[in-house]
């Protein structure tokens, strides 16, 4: 039995099985010559010979059709397929499965859900446009009765309107494709056991729907397969090709099929040689079908193009483009730019699931490289390419569009750091005017200093705040008016490309500002480069020392659901650092965060879990744009986030508890000296009827109390209060947690 399993994993047996299944695909394609044959990525691509392929693919995941998990994915809306169907009046989607099924869930459930949702969404949009769909427009869900139980069918159907609502609530619904759709879609199924229409194919042109033919390529066989004609047939042999293909791609296989399958004993050696040769082989050599391929496409008037591997082939690429970003593992030799004003970047991102982590890690580098080469008049031509121009290059290009362009495709210019303007002096002027006009309210406070654990905690006592209307918890505020959309113009201080900087309407520190996203984003989301960049813009453009903080999640002390960072000035006459910085001074042999590595510490003298990184003083002085600062700080932020999760998991293991990252709340404090992150266990300190809220500033060493009971509790032990609302940890010396970023 083990020998059979080994044979089923052999490349030769899988490729022979794929060849056999592809014959059936070609047989069905010949019955419907007007319908394009489209691969469902990634398995389906192997079953379509080059001369039969449509050139584009779709992505219907089986997991979106798994029982109880049915979904219409907005990330995989597959609207280009709708354009193809509208033009050709039908299509053939090819996929396979190796799990002992006749049809994969992608074809038996995900595609039928997609068809029904598209039909219902189109009906609503057509009706809103004044077009009549009352007759002949079928919105039903169609599944195979022999494969899908009536109970499961009913459960799937009950969710369709929810999926339609979700689709229509997005910009995808603005596509003109819905209004151009002349007939509804209906899925039909073909498998190797289907013989009904082989000799007498139907004519669908006169029927009231466009057929979406779901073609399951592989034969259903029991166990691991069957022995025939000198090879072991493997059902769904193309599945999980990363585990057996040894770098071979579908195009490379079909271009050299006879050579690869000519000798069983030499199959692996031939594959190895072809894969190695492909590193230097132009993509045109693989186009054995003889058709011409579009090598690249420009994105509107942005000056950015997405292309296949051949589009980046030298020297021709340098005649067309000024900058080339290669997102794939393979490189052409002699790719170096021909002129000083040209540039090349190799990101080396593996294909498929293996490349996911490398893709995310490459984003900051790619965006920084692209940004420096964008021009307002789009005169600098930038090519971003991968093997087919359909995955990695699209992701990098999309990130660049979001980062550097507005919705009209116009280049946005993030402000450079203006070292001439003192931000806080300007904020104080706006504050004085807002107080005089009554648009802002200032609460007088008295300050107590409580020394504990080597930290001089600053306790602000503001009894007038007890009379201020209280905000509810973040998750309960969605129906209340958003004070940031629209904001009070009298509170406007400044702006960046992505954020408004506003005065805090109710403040106990003059010049307390909020860095607020221009569009609504939730306060439960992590800080991203634009958030951190905009906050850094405020911190660095003033001679007044400031501290920034972010309350993330329902237990963090946040009072507004709209994403915002807060910044308060320190009194330079009294102290120029938050009190918690005293603990940082005790770190022996300090190691600072460089661009390539984050040195992360946990301060075990504090009774709650924490992680902190020291910021290299000289690096930020060299940064000239707030965007560059944002990427640097983002690397720090997510390194801290990973380290914090590691600390929580270790603590939970000791206590036998489970860690739920989906509901994580935490506080972030940062200055131009350090960034610190503290997870939350509770939103309030509760004892003897007292319920006192604590936010990020508490962990910076600055607490606000509103009555004598709170004041007494804090003065008795500040660290006890913080440990109660944080997540307790053991005591000890400051240590490096060895998490690299």
UniProtKB/TrEMBL annotation:
Instruction: List the InterPro entries hit by this protein, alphabetically.
Output: Ap4A_phos1/2-like (IPR043171), Ap4A_phos1/2_N (IPR045759), ATP_adenylylTrfase_C (IPR019200), HIT-like_sf (IPR036265), Prot-tyrosine_phosphatase-like (IPR029021), Rit1 (IPR007306), Rit1_DUSP-like (IPR033421), Rit1_N (IPR033449)
**Which BP terms does GO give this entry?**
charged-tRNA amino acid modification
Ranges for the ATP adenylyltransferase C-terminal domain?
615-728
One GO CC annotation? cytoplasm
| Residue span, Ap4A phosphorylase 1/2 N-terminal domain | 422-585
Query: What is the annotated signal peptide range for this record?
Result: none
Domain Rit1 N-terminal, which positions? Answer: 4-275
Under the GO molecular function aspect, what terms does this record hold? ATP:ADP adenylyltransferase activity; tRNA adenosine(64)-2'-O-ribosylphosphate transferase activity
Q: Name one Pfam family in it.
A: Ap4A_phos_N
Highest taxon listed in the record's lineage:
Eukaryota
- Rit1 DUSP-like domain span: 344-419
Kindly provide the name given to this protein in its UniProt entry.
Answer: Uncharacterized protein
């Amino acid at each position: 039995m083990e020998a059979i399993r080994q044979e089923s994993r052999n490349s030769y047996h899988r490729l022979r099985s794929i060849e056999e299944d592809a014959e059936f695909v070609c047989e069905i394609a010949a019955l419907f010559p007007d319908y394009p044959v489209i691969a469902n990525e990634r398995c389906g691509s192997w079953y379509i010979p080059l001369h039969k392929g449509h050139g584009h693919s779709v992505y219907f995941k089986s997991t979106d059709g798994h029982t109880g998990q049915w979904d219409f994915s907005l990330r995989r809306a597959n609207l280009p397929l709708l354009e193809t169907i509208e033009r050709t009046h039908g299509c053939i989607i090819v996929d396979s499965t190796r799990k002992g099924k006749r049809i994969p869930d992608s074809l038996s459930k995900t595609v039928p859900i997609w068809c029904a949702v598209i039909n219902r969404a189109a009906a609503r949009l057509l009706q809103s446009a004044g077009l009549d769909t009352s007759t002949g427009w079928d919105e039903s869900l169609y599944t195979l009765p022999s494969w899908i139980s009536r109970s499961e069918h009913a459960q799937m159907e009950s969710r369709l309107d929810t999926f339609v609502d979700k689709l229509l609530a997005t910009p995808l619904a603005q596509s003109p494709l819905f209004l151009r759709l002349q007939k509804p879609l209906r899925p039909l199924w073909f498998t190797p056991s289907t013989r009904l229409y082989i000799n007498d194919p139907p004519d669908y042109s006169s029927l009231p729907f466009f057929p979406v033919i779901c073609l399951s390529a592989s034969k259903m066989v029991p166990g691991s397969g069957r022995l025939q004609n000198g090879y072991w047939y493997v059902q769904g042999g193309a599945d999980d090709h990363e585990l057996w293909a040894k770098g071979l791609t579908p195009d490379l296989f079909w271009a050299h099929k006879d050579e690869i399958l000519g000798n069983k004993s030499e199959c692996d050696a031939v594959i190895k040689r072809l894969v190695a040769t492909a590193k230097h082989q132009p993509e045109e050599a693989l186009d054995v079908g003889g058709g011409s391929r579009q090598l690249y496409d420009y994105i509107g008037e942005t000056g950015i193009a997405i292309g296949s591997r051949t589009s980046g082939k030298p020297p021709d690429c340098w005649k067309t483009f000024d900058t080339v970003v290669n997102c794939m593992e393979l490189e052409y030799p002699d790719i170096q730019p021909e002129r000083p004003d040209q540039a090349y970047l190799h990101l080396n991102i593996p294909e498929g699931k293996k490349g996911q982590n490398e893709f995310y890690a490459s984003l900051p580098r790619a965006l920084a490289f692209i940004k420096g080469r964008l021009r307002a008049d789009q005169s600098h031509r930038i090519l971003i390419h991968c093997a087919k121009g359909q995955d990695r290059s699209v992701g990098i290009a999309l990130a660049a569009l979001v980062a550097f362009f507005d919705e009209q495709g116009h280049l946005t210019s993030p402000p450079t750091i203006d070292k001439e303007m003192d931000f806080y002096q300007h904020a104080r002027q706006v504050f004085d005017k807002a107080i005089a006009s009554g648009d802002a309210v200032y609460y007088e406070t008295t300050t107590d200093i409580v020394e504990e654990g080597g930290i001089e905690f600053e306790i602000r006592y503001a009894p007038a705040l007890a009379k201020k209307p209280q905000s509810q918890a973040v998750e309960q505020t969605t129906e209340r008016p958003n004070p940031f959309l629209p904001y009070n113009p009298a509170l406007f201080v400044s702006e960046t490309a992505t954020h408004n900087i506003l005065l805090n309407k109710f403040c106990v520190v003059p010049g307390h500002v909020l860095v607020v996203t221009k569009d609504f984003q939730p306060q439960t989301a992590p800080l991203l480069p634009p958030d951190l960049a905009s906050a850094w813009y405020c911190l660095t453009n003033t001679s007044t020392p400031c501290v920034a903080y972010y309350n993330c999640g329902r237990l963090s002390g946040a009072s507004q659901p709209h994403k915002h960072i807060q910044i308060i000035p320190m009194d330079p006459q009294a102290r120029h650092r938050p009190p918690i910085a005293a603990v940082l001074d005790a770190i022996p042999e300090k190691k600072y965060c460089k661009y390539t590595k984050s040195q992360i510490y946990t301060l075990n003298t504090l009774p709650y879990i924490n992680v902190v990184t020291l910021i290299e003083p000289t690096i930020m002085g060299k940064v000239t744009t707030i965007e560059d600062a944002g990427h640097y700080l983002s690397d720090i932020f997510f390194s801290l986030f990973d380290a914090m999760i590691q600390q929580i998991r270790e603590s939970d293991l000791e206590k036998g508890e489970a860690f739920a990252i989906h509901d994580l709340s935490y506080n972030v404090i940062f200055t131009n000296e350090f960034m610190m992150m503290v997870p939350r266990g509770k939103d309030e300190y509760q004892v003897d009827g007292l319920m006192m809220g604590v936010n990020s500033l508490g962990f910076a060493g600055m607490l606000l109390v509103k009555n004598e009971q709170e004041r007494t509790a804090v003065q008795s032990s500040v660290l006890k209060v913080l440990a109660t609302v944080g997540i307790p940890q053991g005591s000890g010396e400051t240590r490096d947690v060895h998490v690299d970023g």
